[in-house]
Design brief:
Layout lengths: L1 E4 L2 E5 L3 E7 L5 E8 L52 E4 L10 E9 L18 E8 L5 E10 L4 E10 L5 E13 L4 E9 L2 E9 L3 E7 L11 E6 L9 E7 L4 E7 L5 E7 L6 E3 L4 E3 L2 E7 L3 H15 L14 E3 L1 H4 L5 H11 L6 E4 L28 H9 L4 E6 L3 E2 L4 H5 L19 E2 L5 H15 L6 E4 L21 H19 L4 E4 L9 H4 L4 E3 L6 H11 L8 E6 L12 H9 L2 E5 L7 H23 L1 E4 L9 E7 L5 E8 L9 E3 L9 E4 L4 E3 H7 L1 E3 L8 E8 L1
Parallel strand pairs: 21-22, 21-30, 22-23, 23-26, 26-27, 27-28, 28-29, 29-30
Antiparallel strand pairs: 1-2, 2-3, 3-4, 5-10, 6-7, 7-8, 8-9, 9-19, 9-20, 10-17, 10-18, 11-12, 11-14, 13-16, 14-15, 15-20, 16-17, 24-25, 31-32, 32-33, 33-38, 34-37, 35-36, 35-38
């Protein structure tokens, strides 16, 4: 609900309130964000003082207490006396870097705003409201429209900025944040989700320190190293207590998220496109739209915040039939089974082994096209290699379908190999600087997706493949970061636009697939989790969570990922042991329990599985189907942290009505004389009585406060699941 009175703008959600106001000088001041309160003008909380070296706007006259350097602002500017992080930096035609934005007008609309060419949460008039605030620099005539989308049910507030040059001379944008948020106190912890390839989104928590703390990516992708979801919270906040804020950027390119603690112990947060090599030329009359930033505040800890994110993403970001109408397929991918060494007969043998186990789909991974037999060549030549697959997909896919299974395909449409027909014909289609040797990643270059002719050519080639057979799924991979970022299609003074134009081109491609192949499930991937962000989820409702399929490492990866992203978005498979990445051996039952907390599947040669292993897999697949709705649509509870407890990791899925729950627990390496485990559960109804695995029953209050006894599990990495049903 949006309440407006005397230029005080109050955005209410179910449990929170967000407020700002335009003051007597037209400066947009941030007044409050936290637990829900009334409609009072909370600018009374802003205290003023004459601070040394804090300059005053000219229109404040002799009032030295009024300084932009100390006031909490809604969208901070540059060059006018605020020395903290700016949300916007522009180079004006005269070479100055001054942006002085003042309030001009506001507008409200039913429903959620949309962003042209960019992913965004969506909602109708009964689900969301939009507020648009217009700010204006009267000297340069630069205008900024601040968009706010309010989803009351999910405590979700979305933000974006549209920057318009209404002047008569060009302006260069050097920074354009999606959101800025000032906090009255810096007594907060900064939580980020960091890592590297095959160990993504590890939980990191540290108190704010003086100065700027930031994370981000300059790789042209959201990256394995840092995720565009961050949190700020009270020092005492935990799963069930304390004020916390989660902020996500719906963007798949280079980004920056930063928080600054100033000498007066307040804090400013900003998130948006990375300013690294960013320079966007705005000619008179042109506009630039930032990616969307989304915020959830929880007054009662991390779990409630997580539930808001998961529900909002499932209902207002996912699209297409795999949002709710259809179940995600239980699939087997041939990559870890065969790598590049496969042919039609080997794939059919895997499918023959998979079909009786209850597996829905066979996915053919890298190596099916051009002359590609290793990762040194062939990318860009999207024609079927008929030496491996005689008769092409037209011959192979019906054989898989005859076994009762669907068929999926791996592609990497943003890349090109030097050793390819495409590159030999169009070397200028790759991102590279003339007269310099290119930097290679995985022996490949990146196609220039800023160019429509490049996108059209790749799209046409892939459409021909997809229409050649009954293909229900594609895995869209991206196996290197951007470098040598220079486009032959842009003049020198616009090369600073390439990083962002690349992402706009990617989104345009994905949207074309979404529109032209509405029943196709696309799973995102970037060497696993290198592009796991909310922007991609608008186009690909599941993303391969990590190339690391080791079940014990996945406990940490899933834990960090779960704070924002729903379980249903995490591609998660059972692989062979010893594991390819860690050489660890874990029981098949444990690998299944871990992978089941995601979009489930297998990554191994099922034709080599023993009868005993096939019996276990058959039970796993039946359990996954039995618990599918609970896992994919229930509320997720982190019962322990693998970063704090190496003895065991536990989590739970609880139905919305709290009448059913699935509790999973995985032990660490075995030790002698271990203490007993009593696991306290979360999310149950204290007044209901639950039967555990069809046997003993307990009151919800007992399971929550006293706990559930866990039987002794002997041996390394043992696991169990408890199915709770209310009587």
């Amino acid at each position: 609900m949006i309440h407006i009175e005397n230029n005080v703008f109050t955005l209410h959600t179910r449990r929170t309130t967000y407020q700002f106001k335009a003051d007597e000088h037209g400066v947009l001041l941030h007044t409050y964000y936290g637990a829900r309160v009334g409609n009072d003008d909370l600018s009374c909380l802003i205290q003023l003082a004459d601070r040394g070296f804090a300059p005053n706007p000219y229109d404040a006259g002799t009032n030295r207490w009024y300084s932009l350097n100390t006031l909490p602002q809604e969208y901070s500017t540059c060059g006018v006396g605020d020395y903290r992080m700016p949300a916007i930096i522009a180079e004006n035609a005269d070479g100055s870097h001054i942006v002085d934005l003042r309030f001009e007008r506001f507008e409200t609309r039913p429903g959620k705003y949309a962003l042209d060419g960019l992913p965004a949460f969506y909602g109708g008039s009964s689900e969301a409201e939009t507020l648009i605030i217009t700010l204006h620099d009267s000297t340069t005539r630069l205008t900024v429209e601040l968009y706010y989308g309010v989803f009351e049910e999910f405590d979700l507030i979305c933000r974006a900025a549209r920057i318009i040059n209404r002047g008569s001379a060009p302006v260069r944008l050097l920074r354009a944040s999606s959101a800025c948020l000032d906090f009255p106190s810096d007594a907060l912890d900064w939580i980020t989700f960091d890592g590297r390839h095959i160990m993504e989104r590890e939980f990191s928590r540290t108190p704010l320190r003086p100065g700027v703390q930031n994370i981000g990516s300059v790789r042209g992708t959201s990256s394995h190293q840092h995720n565009p979801f961050v949190m700020l919270c009270e020092h005492s906040a935990d799963e069930d207590h304390g004020l916390c804020f989660g902020m996500a950027l719906l963007y798949s390119g280079s980004f920056e998220a930063a928080v600054e603690s100033n000498p007066f112990h307040d804090a400013r947060f900003a998130i948006g496109i990375s300013p690294h090599h960013f320079c966007w030329l705005l000619a008179p009359g042109e506009a630039f739209t930032t990616p969307e930033a989304a915020m959830v505040c929880s007054p009662t800890g991390f779990a409630a915040m997580t539930h808001c994110w998961h529900r909002a993403i499932r209902t207002h970001l996912f699209r297409g039939p795999y949002q709710f109408e259809r179940r995600r397929p239980l699939l087997v991918n041939n990559w870890e089974a065969t790598m590049f060494d496969f042919d039609a007969e080997k794939l059919v043998s895997i499918a023959r082994a998979a079909a009786p186990l209850g597996i829905d789909m066979l996915v053919m991974d890298d190596g099916w096209f051009g002359t590609r037999c290793d990762d040194l060549g062939g990318l860009g030549d999207w024609t079927v290699n008929e030496n491996k697959l005689p008769g092409g997909l037209e011959a192979l896919v019906p054989r898989i379908r005859a076994l009762g299974m669907d068929f999926g395909l791996w592609i990497e449409p943003e890349m090109v190999s030097e050793d390819s027909e495409l590159y030999r014909q169009h070397p200028d289609w790759a991102l590279r600087v003339p007269n310099r040797p290119p930097t290679l990643g995985r022996s490949q270059l990146v196609l220039d997706y800023t160019r429509k002719d490049v996108r059209d050519a790749i799209y046409a080639a892939l459409c021909k493949v997809l229409r050649s057979a009954d293909i229900r799924y594609i895995k869209w991979d991206f196996n290197r970061s951007l470098s040598d970022v220079w486009s032959a299609a842009l003049p020198a003074d616009r090369q600073g636009e390439v990083y962002h134009r690349y992402i706009l081109g990617l989104y345009e491609m994905l949207e074309r697939f979404h529109q032209d192949f509405p029943d196709l499930l696309i799973e995102g991937c970037s060497g696993g989790g290198g592009r796991f962000d909310a922007g991609m989820l608008y186009y690909t409702p599941q993303i391969w969570c990590s190339d690391n399929t080791d079940a014990i490492d996945r406990l940490r990866i899933h834990y960090g990922t779960s704070f924002c992203y729903p379980v249903s978005s995490m591609g998660s498979h059972v692989s062979a042991v010893p594991n390819e990445q860690t050489h660890r051996i874990t029981p098949l039952e444990t690998r299944g329990i871990v992978a089941m907390s995601g979009a489930f599947g297998y990554e191994l040669d099922l034709s080599q599985a023993t009868d005993a292993e096939k019996a276990i897999m058959t039970r796993q697949n039946a359990d996954y189907r039995k618990y599918y709705d609970l896992i994919h649509n229930g509320d997720y509870y982190r019962l322990t942290s693998p970063f704090e407890n190496d003895r065991y990791t536990a989590w739970a899925h609880v139905s919305a009505d709290k009448r059913e729950a699935l509790v999973s627990l995985v032990m660490g390496a075995s030790r002698a004389a271990l203490p007993f485990i009593t696991l306290r559960l979360r999310g149950l109804d204290e007044s209901l009585r639950y039967r555990v695995n069809g046997q003993q029953s307990y009151l919800g209050s007992t399971l929550i406060h006293a706990g559930c006894p866990i039987p002794m599990l002997m041996g390394d990495y043992r696991s169990l699941q408890l199915h709770l049903v209310a009587e």
